[in-house]
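Technical note accompanying the year-one report. For the benefit of new consortium partners, we illustrate the data format agreed upon in the data management plan: each record pairs a sequence with a structure-token string. No post-processing was applied to the example shown here.
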Amino acid sequence: MQKQTLFLLFLFFLLKQYCFAQDDMQRFKAAQLACSRVSQACSKCDDTIKKYFAKKNLDYPPKDIYLRVFKAQNEMELWARNNAQGEYKFVKTYHICALSGILGPKRWEGDRQVPEGFYFIEQFNPKSEYYLSLLLNYPNFSDSILSNNLKPGGNIYIHGGCVTIGCMPMTNEIIQELYVVCLQAKLNGNNNIPVHIFPTRFSKVSMNYLTREYGKDTEKQKFWATLKESFDYFERYRKLMPVCYTLDGKYAN
């Protein structure tokens, strides 16, 4: 009898948590759509995005999307899949209109670097100074260990406009589309949308370039080697490796 009571209490707790989560999501949706920039972006872009997904036989609104960034090429790729067990399918490439800094991770506030590594979208800002913006969870655990302890920097966004000191500006037109697809994914249960930022596509040509230009920087070479493992895994399986860390802040693949 006691076990049955405990089980029922556990079920009640789970149901209560689920209801709270649903209420939070409804409030989030209402707050987003109450902003004119978001509602206008949805009206403008939703049908177009739906056609992109239909051409790839992907469900829309999406259940699972993934953004992959290549700094050297100024490109951001949108990938999606219909379920957590499936392979990601390529949807579209977006041009990043400006990048600051050089190749390599962000290590302190004011270095003008765009981060490199494995992140997710932490916040949707419908009233951004740069039209619409998506906040990344920089610094992540790796950054908090390997970057400047006192001033690692922060406020790294994917945003509108075309100016940057470490963010990824997409222009107002493109951020409308990206914001809408990310918002639709979040509302459909994709709470932590992954955003992986690489210095470049890791081809033989690009690896030769990185060795030639940054060969003496052993820290960058070691760091990029861990990123390459994740890149190669995705290229082979069209799935993401779990993001894990060692205690000293390195990515553990």
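Partners are asked to follow this layout when depositing records. Residues 160 and 173 are 8 Å apart (CA to CA).
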